[in-house]
Protein 1
Amino acid sequence: MVEPVGNHYVIARPVYSENAFNEEHEKLHRYHKTFWDHLKLYFSCSPQRAKKIALRLFPVVSWLPAYRFREWILNDIISGINTGLVAVLQGLAFALLVNVPPSYGLYAAFFPVLVYFIFGTSRHISVGPFPVLSLMVGGVVTRLVPDDSTGNGTSTNTSAINDERVMVAASVTFLSGVVQLLLGIFQFGFIVIYLSQSLISGFTTAAAIHVLVSQLKFMFQLSVPGFNVPFGIIYTLESVFSQITKANVADLVTSLIVLLIVFVVKEMNDRYKEKLPAPIPIELLVTILAALISYFVNLEEKFDVAVVGKLEEGFHAPVAPDADILQKCIGDGISIAIVGFAVAFSVAKVYSIKHDYPIDGNQELIAFGLGNIVGGSFKGFASSTALSRSGVQESTGGKTQIAGIISSVIVLVVILAIGFLLAPLQKSVLASLALGNLKGMLMQFKEIGILWRKDKYDCVIWVVTFLSAIFLGLDIGLAAAVAFQLLTVVIRSQIPSCTVLANVGRSNIYRNRKDYTDIYEPEGVKIFRCSSPIFFANIEFFREKLITAVGFNPLRVLRKRNKALRKIRKMLKKGELQVTPKGLICMANPTYESEEELDNNKIEELDQPTIMTDLPIRINWSTDLPPGITVPQVNIHSIILDFSSVSFLDFSAMTVLRKVISIHEFVRLDIDIYIAGAYDGLLDKLERSAFFDEEIKPSMFFLTIHDAVLHILLKKDIANSPKLKLAEVTPQSSSFLTLLPFQYCQAPCNALHSYSSVCYLSLFSKDSH
C-alpha cells in the first residue's frame, strides 16, 4: 500500500525474501524463444512477412508514394544542385587521395547515389567519396602498385600504372561492398557499437592528418612515393622535406591562397549560418576562378604547374574485380567496409534524430554494400558520406533523397558534357579543396580536454586511437584501437567499483558510507555492493574486496579456530584445562606450539566446519580464551551482498561465490550471507547450477537491501528475547513501513503480535524509543 503524505510517501508491506514474494505473488510462465525458434521465424514466409521484407529491402517504396511534391520539390532541386556541385569538386579532389586520375572520382560520386536512393533509409546524407575512405583505398593502391613499379616515367608507363591503380581501387571497393552486403544480410548492423564516438573521433582526426600529409606532394609538386607501412607518415614527411628546395612556388602560393580563402569563407558560413539563406559555395567559386586564371594565364607552360588534364568522357563498361588483388587486400576491404559504415551511420543517426524518422542499420549496410559493388564495377572507389557535403544537402533545404538524385544529375552532366572545362585546373587547387574540408575533423583536437574532464577512459581511447592510426597506418591503427578499446572495457569490468553501504537519512536508502555523515550501520552487519557483472575475470577481485570490506580473511579465521579447538582438546586430555561455570580455566603454564606442529601436514582438516559436540562446553569465540590460544575476533554476524548492479554471473563466478559463502569461508564462521536486489532469473539459474545445499539456501535472497536489513534486525532481536522466540515472528509476517524523508516512529510497539519492521525504522532514528 502506498499513501502520499505531502511531499513524502508511505509504503506499508511485508518484509520480503525472494521466496516469500514469489509465494505471495504468482509469476506468469513465459515461454522464452530458443535459437531455433528465432531461426524458424527468420526463414518463415507469409504474404504479410513478404510484404514487410520487400518494404524493408526497398525503402523507396515506402516514402516515395508519400512524397509531398508541391511542398518539397523546389527545396530538393535547390539542395540537389548545390550538393551536386560540391560532389563534383570533392570527387575530383578525393581522387588524388586514392592516387587515381581525377575523373574516376566522378564515378564514385555518381553510382552510389543512385543505389542509395533505392535502398537507403536516411533522407539527408549525401553519399559519395569520403576523405578517410579515399585515403584508406589509396594506401592499398600505393602498396600494390608503387610509383616505381615500372622502369621509367614515359606516358605509356604512366598510363599503365594508372590503369593498374584504378583496377586495385575498384577491386578493393568491390570487396568492401561485398563485406557490407553480407553484414547487412546477416543482420550485423550492431557492429557499429564497437566503434565508440571517442574512437571514431580520434580515428578521423588521425585520418585528417594523413590526408594533410598526403596532399603536400601536390601542394609542393614533388615526386613523393607512397609509404603504406607502419610509420609511413614519418617517411613521407622525410621525403617531402628532403626535396623542399625543389618545390614549385606557383603551386605552393596557389595552394596557400586557396586554403586561406576556403577556411575564411567556411568560418563565415558556420558563424552566420542562421542569417545566410544557403552556405556560400566557395569550392565552386574558387574552382571556376582558378580554372579561368590557369586557362588564360597558361600557368601550365609558364610555371610548370601540374593540372588535372583532360577528363575521360562517358562511362567505362563494368568490369569484374581482379581475383589476385582481392586475395591481397581482404583485411583492407573489411576495415574500409566497417569504417565507411560507421561514419555514414553516425551522420545518418544525427539527421534522423533531428528530423524524427527511423533508420535501419542493417538496411544501411545493404545500401552501402550494393553502392560500393556497383561503384567498384564501374571503376569508382569506396563511398560513404562526407560531413560537409551532407551538411550542404541538409542546410539548403533537402527533404529526401530526391536531392541526391538531382546531385547525381549534376555529376552526370560533368561526366558527359562539360568535364573538359576543368582540364586546366591545377592539382594543387584540388589538394587545397580536400584540405579545406578537413576543418571539422581537425577541430576535434578540442575534444581531448573535454573528454579528460568527463571520462578519462574515453580520453585515453581517443589519444591511443589517434597515435595508433598516425604511426601504424589507418588499417593497422584501427585494429589496434578497437583492441585497446575492448581492453578498457575488460579492465573496467575486471576492476569494478566495490563499496560498503550504510543507511542514509534514517530511511530505506543505502549509499556509500564514505560519502555521507548522517549514516546508520546496523551493528554486526556489513552491506557490500559490486557495481559490475561478476564473471571469471573479476571474481577474485570481488572476493578480495569483500574480505577487505569485512576486515578479516574468513578462511584464516576458520583455520585458526580449528587449530584452537585442536589445542583445547589436547589440553583437556592432559588436564591442563578445567571446565568451570565461568568457562575454561588453565591449570598449567600455557605452551605455544608452532604453526607447523598444529598443521601436522593436514591443512584440509583445518578447512572443515568447527565441531564442538565432543567438548564439555561450547566455545564462545568472542570471549577471552585460555592463555596460549589466540583467535582473531569477528564482530560481524551478517553480510548483505547488494546485487542490484550485477547484470549476470557466469559459471566460474558461481563456483567461487559458493566457495566464498560456505565451503571454506563465511557460513562456517556462523556469519549469515544475504543477497539483495538480484536480477530476474538469477535464482533459477543458481538452482539449475546446483548452487544451493544445506548451508546455502534460496532463503538468503531478498528483494531489497532494506528487506534484508529488517530481517536481520528482527532475527537478532528474536534470538536475544525469549518472548519474541515464543511469538515466532517471520519476515514475511512482519510489516514494512517507510516514510521518505524519515519520520520518527510514534506508534507504540509493545504489543508482541503486532511486532513490525517499523520498529526497526525507529532504531535508525536518533531518539529511539
Protein 2
Amino acid sequence: MDGDGASSTGATPSEEMNGTGNLMDFLDEPFPDVGTYEDFHTIDWLREKSRDTDRHRKITTKSKESYWELIKSLLDAWSGWVVMLLIGMLTGTLAGVIDLAVDWMTDLKEGVCLSALYYSREQCCWTSNETTFDDRDKCPQWQKWAELMTGHSEGAGAYVLNYFLYVLWALLFSFLAVSLVRVFAPYACGSGIPEIKTILSGFIIRGYLGKWTLLIKTVTLVLAVSSGLSLGKEGPLVHVACCCGNLFCSLFSKYSKNEGKRREVLSAAAAAGVSVAFGAPIGGVLFSLEEVSYYFPLKTLWRSFFAALVAAFTLRAINPFGNSRLVLFYVEYHTPWYMAELVPFILLGVFGGLWGALFIRGNIAWCRRRKTTLLGKYPVLEVIVITGITAVLAFPNPYTRRSTSELISELFNDCGALESSQLCDYVNNPNMSRPVDDIPDRPAGPGVYSALWQLALALIFKIVITIFTFGMKIPSGLFIPSMAVGAIAGRIVGIAVEQMAYHHHDWIIFKNWCRPGADCVTPGLYAMVGAAACLGGVTRMTVSLVVIMFELTGGLEYIVPLMAAAVTSKWVADAFGKEGIYESHIQLNGYPYLDVRDEFTHRTLATDVMRPRRSEPPLAVLTQDSTTVEDVETLIKDTDYNGFPVVVSRESERLIGFVQRRELTVAIKTARQKQDGVVSSSVVYFTEDNPQVAEACDPQPLKLRRILNLSPFTVTDHTPMETVVDIFRKLGLRQCLVTRSGRLLGIITKKDVLRHMAQMMNQDPESIMFN
C-alpha cells in the first residue's frame, strides 16, 4: 500500500527488457480493499498519516500540470471546510427537531392543546388570547386528559385518571424506544460517548456511526427523553453528530479512504454535538479536546470551532425554545457573590465528588450484573420495569413529574416579583418600596418549606433511579440527570444559607456583607454551582465543564464559584477512583483504549511483555525468498494474527519488514485471478531484485515487495515498558517488533500492552477483549 514505507512501484528498464516486469509487479494498480481494516481492530495511525502525506504529495505535483488539476487540488483543500459546514447544518437541524419533539411529547403525557394538537403546553398558552396575568399558570386552551375525557379537572377521580394516563404514555414511549433499538440498530443504545472515545482513539466498530444508527438514535432519543426516565439527550447528541460526520465523510475519498483523517472530522463533529446540546459552541470545542478526542491537531481545533459555530447558528435559526436563546437555562442574577459564600460552594463541590464516586461504583456494579446474569437477556422488560417505577414514583411529586430540563431551569431561576413558583413563596414586607429586580432577602413562607420537602424527596429519588437507568438499551445521556441532582442539592443549600443570613444577619460571617433589607444570597446560583459540581464528579471534566456552565446560563461573573466547585469535585471523586464514568464503561466493555492520562510507573521491560513467551510456540514469520504461496495460505488459515514479520531466513532471523494479514490475503487472491502461472508451489519474493526463474518448467514466482512495510516500528528487548507504553500512546501503533542486534525476538501488540497494564493494576487482563 502507498506510504507504508514500501519501495517505489514503477518497473525499471531492466525488468521491462526481461519481459517479467508487468508479471512480477502487476501491483502497479493499488489493490482494491487494501488498507481497510477488519471490524473490532485498531488502526495504524502512522501508516494512515504516511498514506495521507503521499496522497497530498501526488495532488501537489499534479496541480502544476494543468488548470483542471489545480482546481481539483483547491477543491481537495476546501473539502474539509465543506464537510464541517454540512455537519454543522445537519446536527443543528436534528437538535432543533429533537428539542421541539421532546417538548411536545413530554407535555402529551399530561394533556393536549385544543387549538393545535402539535403545540406543547407553553406554545399553547403563549398563543392563547384568554390567558390572564393573574391566572398565568392556567390556560383554557390546554386541557389535562381527565378534563378532556370526563369534564372534571379537580377531585380524586380526575387525579387517578391523569396518573394512570401519565404512566401509560411513559410505558408506551419507552417500549417503542427499546423495540426500535433492538430491531433496527442495537448500537443506538446508551450515551455513545465511551464508544466515540474508543473510535477516536483508533478502534473500528463497523455500523456504530452508520445511517441506520443515526436515524434510530434520533427517533428513540425523543421517545426515551419524553418517557420521563432519568436521562438526558446531551451525550446521545454527540453520537448523533458523529454519525452525521461519518455520513459526510463517505462523500469525500480523502476522508472515506483514510481512517486517520476520518477521525479528525469525527473530533470536530463531537464538538458540534455538544454545541447544540447545551448551546455552548466554545464549551463544545473544549469538551472535544478535553474529554473525547485522542489526536487533536491545531487544524482540527479550527475546524471544530467552525462546525460548532455553524451548528449553533442553525439551532438559533430554528429557535426551539422560543426565547431567541440557544439554551433553556438562561438566567440573570442581580447580586454579586461574596467571599464567605465560597465555603458552601466548596461543600457543594465535595457533595458533587461524593455523588460522582457513588454513582460510578453503583452504576458499574449494576451494568456488570446486567452483563453476567439473566437480567441482560431481557432488555425490553428491564426498560419497561424501570420506566414503570420511575413514572409511578415521579407523578405525585411536581418536581419529578415535569421534564428534568424544566426542573433545572426552575431551580436556576432567581425569584423575581412575577414568579409564581412555590420556591418563590416568601413572606413579603407590606411597606416594601424597592425596585422590582432587587428584592431583599425575606423570610420563607409555607410554600418554600413544602417545596423543600418535595425537593429532598426528589433528590433521593433522582440519586437512586439514575444509577439503574444509565446503560439500559435505549439512548441515555448522563449530563442532565447529574445536573439535576446537583441543582436540587444546591437550591436546598442556597435557601438554607439565605434564611440563615436573614435571621442571623448579626453573626460575624454575615455582618460584613449582609445588611438587613439587602438582597445578599441568590439560591439559584447555588443550584448552578451544585449542578456543575455533580457533573464534574461523574465525568471528571474541569475546563470544558466551567465554560459549558457559564455559556449555558450566561452567568459570566460566577466563573470563580464554578471553578472552585469543579476542582473540588474532581479532587474528591479522584480520591475514590481515577476513572470517570466514560472510562469505567470503556473498561467494562473491554475496549482497547490507552488513556493518555494513565501513569505507567512499573519497572518492567519489553522482553517481559512480548510474545511468544517461553512456553509458547515460536513466532509465525515469513522468509524473504523461500516461502511458497501454499505456505502463506496455510499460515493465514491456521493463525488469526493481524500481520507477519518478514525475515531473511529462519536461521538468521534478521528482520526485513512487516506485512499485514489482510493485504497478504488480497494480494494472493488478486494474483491468482490476474497473473498467469501463479500456483500453490510458486515462491513468494519480498526482495528488491528480480527473482531468476531457473527452468522453464518452474512455476511463475510472485513478487510482493510492494505490500511489505520496510520500516516497522522496533524496540530492543531491554526497552523499559514505560517507554513502550508512551510510544504506543503517542504514535498510535498497532504493534511493535522486539529485536536484539537486528535479530527478531518477538512482537508486542496494543492488546498485550493493555493486558500488561491491567495485570500491573491487579485487574483481570482477560477483560481486554479486542485487538
Protein 3
Amino acid sequence: MRPLTFSKMDFSQSNLFGYIEDLQELTIIERPVRRSLKTPEEIERLTVDEELSDIERAVYLLSSGQDIQGTSVVANLPVLMRQNPAETLRRVLPKIREVLHVAGVEMQLTAAVSFLTVLQEESVSIHTYSHSFLHIILQNLEHRDAGVSNAWLETLLAVIEALPKETVRHEILNPLVSKAQLAQTLQSRLVSCKIMGKVANKFEAHIIKREVLPLVKSLCQDVEYEVRTCMCRQLEHIARGIGTELTKTVVLPELVELARDEGSSVRLAAFETLVNLLDMFDADDRSQTVLPLVKSFCEKSFKADESILVSLSFHLGKLCNGLYGIFTPEQHLRFLEFYKKLSTLGLQQENGHNDNQLQLQTLEQEKKYISVRKNCAYNFPAMMVFVDPKNFHLELYSIFFCLCHDPEVPVRYTMAISFFEVAKLLNSDVHTIHKELVTLLQDESLEVLDALVGHLPEILELMANRGENNGSESKLLSIPDLIPALTTAEQRAATSLKWRTHEKLLQKYACLPHIISSDQIYYRFLHRMLTIILTNNVLPVQKAAARTLCIYLRYNRKQEQRHEVIQKLIEQLGQGKSYWNRLRFLDTCEFIMELFSKSFFCKYFFLPVLELTHDPVANVRMKLCYLLPKVKSTLKIPTDKHLLQQLELCIRKLLCQEKDKDVLTIVKRTVLELDRMEISVDAEQLEKEKQQTEGRSTNINDKMFEKKRRDSKASSVLAKSINLSVPGSSSGTSAGKEEKKSKLVRSQSFSTQALHPKYSNIDKCPNKSSATGYTSSVSGMGKSCMLSFSDDSFRTHSTGSSGNAAFLSSSSSRNLFNSADQKNSGNKESQSRRMSIKNRKSNS
C-alpha cells in the first residue's frame, strides 16, 4: 500500500483513484475490529445477575448461556469441586453431561482437561469419581474428532491407574471385546489397543492370558497398518505384565512376524519394541531370533526409507550393549563400522568427494542425515562402553573429532551435552580430549556453549586431577589455549542477547580457583568480573559476576592483591557516582557476609556499608535497611561494641532525618527486627575485659579507701577544734547546709560527665517523636548493650546474654569517680577554712 501524504496532494483523476483504493484498503483493515465489538443486545445476553451464587451461575450459563460461557463453566469445574463438591455433583455435572452431546471441539477439550484435574486434585473419592465421571469419559471416547478422542483417551488412561481392579474389569475391560472387533471403526480399534496396553499392568498374568491376549493377537493381524503399528508399540507394556515365559511363547512370535510386515512403520515399531525388550529375552532368544532380525534390519536400512535410519541410529547404543555378550569379534567389528558410517552420513570426506558420489541431496534427506548424526552423538558414550574406553583413541577418537567439528549445530550441541560422560569414562586418559574441549568452548553457537557449560566445573576438575601434568602447579598448564578459550567464551556471551547463558557461564566460572592458579585468575578473570559489575545492564548477570568475584577474592592469598580489590570495591561501587553501582555494592557485601568470616566483613566493609545511610537516593537507603539485620549478625560483643554504637547511631539518624515515607516505614520495621536479634558474645574477650575491669575497680577502691581514711582523720581533728571554739547549734546548722551543697555539686558532676561528647547533641534531633519512639522500641535491642536516650538522663542497658558489656568505658567511669571525690574533698576544705575564720572573729 502506498503511503498517504497530505502535504502535496495531486487531485487529478488518476491519482484520485489511487487515494480511494488506499482508503478502501484501510477500511478493510479496520473491518475485523468493528466486527469484534459487541452490540448492546449481545452484551445484554452475556450479562448475568451478580447476586447468583457460583453454583447457580454455573447452572444458568450451562442452560441458557452462549458457548463461550459454557466453556468457561467447564474450565472452572475443578474450582467448584473444591468449594462445594456435593452441589457441583448434584446440579452442575448433569448439565455438563447434557451440554457435551452437542458441544464443540473447544468445550470437549476443556472438559477432558478439567476431568483429569479433578482426578489429580482428589477432590472426591475414587469411588465417587468413577460413579460420576467415568461414564461421561467413556461416552466421549469415540468422538468423531481425532484430537478430542485422544484428549479423552489420555484422561481415561490416567483414570485407569487410580481405579480399583473390579471397576476396570467391569466398566472398561469387558466392553473392549466388542470394540476391538474388525467391524468397529478404525478410531475405536486404535483406542482399544492403547487401553489394552494400560490394563496389562493392572491384572495378574493368568487374567491377561485369558482375556487380553486373544484380543492382542487379533489386533496384531488387523487389516489396517495403523492398528498393527499401534498394537505393536503396546506389546512392550503387555510383555512386562505377563512375564518372561508368556513373552517368549506369545509376544516374541508376534514381534517376529510384525518385523517382516509390508508396512515400514510396522517394521519400525517391531524393531523398537524388540530393542526395548532385550532384557526379557535369554541368550538363546537373542542369538537365534533377535540378532538375525537386527542384522537384516541394519542391512536394509540404507536401501529403505531414511526414517528407519533415524530410529536405528537412536537405538544403536542400547542395541549394541544389549547384544554385547553374544557378538562374535567379526559381528562386533561390523556393528562398530556401521556406527562409524552413520556418524559421517551425509558429510563429504577429506578428499572432497562423497562416499558414493551421490548427486546433490534434497533438503529432506539432509534433515534426516543431520538427525542420524545427532543420534550418533547421543549414543557416543554407549559406544565407548561397547568398545571399552581403553580403546578410545584407536577406535573412536576420529569419530569423536568429527562429531565435535560437525557443521550442524544440533550435532555439536548433543556432543557438548555428552562431553562430561565421555570425560568420566576416559578417566586418566581424559587429556586426549583437551583440544575438543577448547574447540567447543570457542564454538560460534551459544547453544553449544550453553550445553557445555552445564558440566564445565566437573569437566575441568576431571582434567585437573587426572591429566598428564602432575606438578605442583595447575594441571591445566599443559593446555595453552584453555584460558584464552574461557575468556573468549565469556566475551562472546557478554556481547550476545542471551543473558541467561552469560549468567550461567559466570556462575560456573566460580570453580576456577580449584583449577588454575591465583595469579591467572587475578590477571585474566577477577578484573573482568569487576568490569561486568560496573558496566553490564542485566541485574542477574551483575549479581553472578559479584558472587564469582567474591569467591576469587576468598581464595586469593596475596594481601596486596586482596587490598587492591577491596579498595576498588569500596571506591568504584560503594562510593560510585551511579546509584546503581552503590546498590551492587550492597549485593556484593551480602555475598561477602555469606562467603567470608564475620571479622573480615567487620574489618573492611562494615563502616563503608553504614556510610550509605547518608545516600541521596531513597532506593539505596531502602536496600541498606533490608540488609541491616545481616550486618548486625556479623558483630561480636565486646570486640565490636564500637561498631555496634555506630550501627545504632546510623539507625537513630535514619529515624530522625529520613523524609521518604517508604524508607521510614522499612526503618521502623527493621528496628523491630533488630530488637529481636541476639548478638553473639566473644566469651574469651569478655573474660579478659572482665579481669581488666576487676583489676581497675580494685585499685580504685583501694585509693578511695585510703582517701576516706585520711579525710576521716582530718575531720576528727577539725571537729575537736570546732567543739572548742564554736557553739554546737550554729556549727551543726552550717555543716548541714554545706553537706547538702556538696551532694548537689556531686550529682551535677555525674550528670554532666556521664554523657559522651559524641552524643551530647542527640536531643537536638528535629523529630523528637521519632527519637522517642526509637528509644522505646530499641531500649532492649538484641539483648545486648544498647543506649537509651531521654531529655533528662543517659542510661545504659544490659542483659544476661551480653554480660558486663557497657558503652561507658572503665576509664570514663574512673574519671567520673575521681572528679566526684575531688569535689567532696574541696568542699570539706572550704568548710573548715570558713569555720576557722568565724572562730577567729568571735575570739576577737
